[in-house]
Every structure is written in C-alpha cells, then in structure tokens.
Amino acid sequence: MNKEREQTNEQLMRASTSIKRCRSEISRRLVGQQRMVDGMLIALIAGGHVLIEGVPGLAKTLAVKTLAEVLAVDFKRIQFTPDLLPADLIGTLVYRQETGEFVPRKGPIFSNVVLGDEINRAPAKVQSALLEAMAEGQVTIGDETYRLAFPFFVLATQNPIEHEGTYPLPEAQLDRFMLKLSVSYPSKKEEVDILRRVGVEKAVPVRQVVGVDDLKHMQAAAAGIAVDERIENYIVDLVHATRSRDRNRYAFVRFIEFGASPRASIYLLRCAKVVALFEGRNYLIPDDVKAVAHQVLRHRLVLSYEAESEELGPDHIVNSVLSSVSVP
C-alpha cells in the first residue's frame, strides 16, 4: 500500500513539474494571457478541444503555435473562409494517371495541433467535417478510414464583433468543445512588455520541454486524482441547476432557455482534475470545479429573451449558478 502511494505521489510530482515547465516556457514568448494558456493546457490534458473567442490581435494564433512548439508536435493552421470545402480540410482522393488509381491526399486535419481560424466563417459542411473528426478521432476518405495521431487537439477561434458573412455554430456543435475561452485585452503593463519584447526580437525562441510520453503521463496522473462523492454530487447539482424550472429556488431560471447537457458534468469533472494537478494535489476540492465552471458552461447555456433584454451574458448567469448552489 505504501509502495503504491509512493508511486502515486511520484507520478503526481512528475506531472506537476511538466505542467510548470510548459507554462514557464510559453511565458517566455507570450506576455500575459495566462488564463488562455492554462485553459489550453487543461483541455489538452483532459482530452478535449477548445473554442477561443476574442477580437483580432490578442495573440491567439501565437499562443497555439507556441504550445505546439513546446510539445514538439506537428502544427497546422487553417484559415476558414466561406468558399472552403470539406475536402480542403480532411483531404480527398486524387487520380494518378500513370497508375490509373485513386490515391488519398490527406488534408491539414492530419496533424497533432490544429488551429481553425475564424471557424464561424466556414459553411456548415466544413464545420461538421471538423467536428466529426474531433468527436470520432478519425477521418474517412473514400472507402478508407484513418485514425488521427495522438495527440489530436483542435483549437478554433471566432471573432465576437463581426457577424457579416459568418455561419454561427449551432448549440449542438458548440457542445462538442470542452472549453470556451474568452480572451480579453492585455493590461497597460503587459502591453508595454509586448512593445519592448517585440521591438527587440520579433520571434522569441522556445524549447521543447515536454514530449508526447510526458503528455500521456500527465493525462494518467489527472485520471488518478481522487474524487469524493460529495464533489461528484456538487458537479451534478451545478449542471442540474441550469436545467431547473423552479423559479422560487433559483432566481436565474428565467434567464435560461436551455441548460447544460450531461457532457458538461463529465467535462467539469475532467477539467477540475487537471486544475488539482496544476496545484500538485491528488484530490479534488470545490474550488477546482469553480475554477473551470465558466469555461465549461458559458457556451452550453441558451439564454432567454429576458437575459438579452437585461443585457446579461453567460458568465453572469454562471456566477448566479455558483452562488446559488450550496458548496459541500
């Protein structure tokens, strides 16, 4: 028993050290945006995908590219446009005249880290092709099905201020993303640091500090985090509160048209475990769940007309849910 506990502690310390190395190396190139970086790492370790929302120029692409370099994995960036076709994403069959055969030409989806820039500018067929690959971890070209390599991590961005010529993701497809990260402007001090850093050296080099085996180890360590039954019930209570129709119990009910699905409960648990791993703990506490509640729930709540009329956003509603549900 003691030997097993020692192995668990050693696994936890190794995973925690790998996470710290990742965060430290990324911060060498990226100024600020620590919440975005942590969100990406949480989803990567938890085995999900990320939707990043923010205005242009906030280093979203730089952050994703830097993460791929730190992991030393393949990276592909796809600029989504209205004329994009599914074949441009997943690949297609190409006819070879010399042999008279059709051979597969794999698309950019066959990579480890895939950045889909401005996903809401692509038509529904392209969005569906990407989301199918995310859900199944495989792609079919012709009659052949190809497994996507590990890790397969999709990060999609969208601009919240431009709606002309866009195809908004329906709620069922938004639910496929584990987290939705909202990226804000840097502080004045951070922007001064950006000016100084970019003015001196445009491309700050970063090193590979963890590998694929380290990532598998981090995922195994996160899966082994102990969860008390009361924490499990707390997670389910939070998600069930978003579906409640009891206005006497929850004042925020009138602002929610449709609540979060059971997938939200699963993702809350998996992401909270990674937060505990960040802190070097082998057990879960309520604060771990609260730390990821906004990222997991904000894109899963369909708000009512009353919420829109009072100019209440998803984060405000999530705050109300967290303050209304009793903490174990």
How would you describe this structure to a colleague?
It is a single chain. With 328 residues, the protein is an alpha/beta fold. It has two domains: 2-185 and 210-214, 3-Layer(aba) Sandwich (Rossmann fold), CATH 3.40.50; 226-324, Magnesium chelatase subunit I, C-Terminal domain (Helicase, Ruva Protein, domain 3), CATH 1.10.8. Helix content is 49%, strand content 15%. It is built from 13 helices and eleven strands. The chain has helices at residues 2-29, 34-46, 60-71, 86-90, 124-136, 171-174, 188-200, 212-223, 229-243, 262-278, 286-297, 305-309, 314-324, and strands at residues 50-53, 75-79, 91-96, 101-106, 113-117, 138-141, 144-147, 153-158, 179-182, 256-258, 302-303. The chain has a five-stranded parallel sheet. The chain is globular. The model has no long low-confidence stretch (mean pLDDT 88).
SSE blueprint:
Layout: H1 2-29, H2 34-46, E1 50-53, H3 60-71, E2 75-79, H4 86-90, E3 91-96, E4 101-106, E5 113-117, H5 124-136, E6 138-141, E7 144-147, E8 153-158, H6 171-174, E9 179-182, H7 188-200, H8 212-223, H9 229-243, E10 256-258, H10 262-278, H11 286-297, E11 302-303, H12 305-309, H13 314-324
Parallel strand pairs: 1-8, 1-9, 2-5, 5-8
Antiparallel strand pairs: 3-4, 6-7, 10-11
Q: Would you kindly provide a brief summary of this structure?
A:
The protein has 328 residues and is α/β, with parallel strands linked by helices. The chain is built from 13 helices and 11 strands.
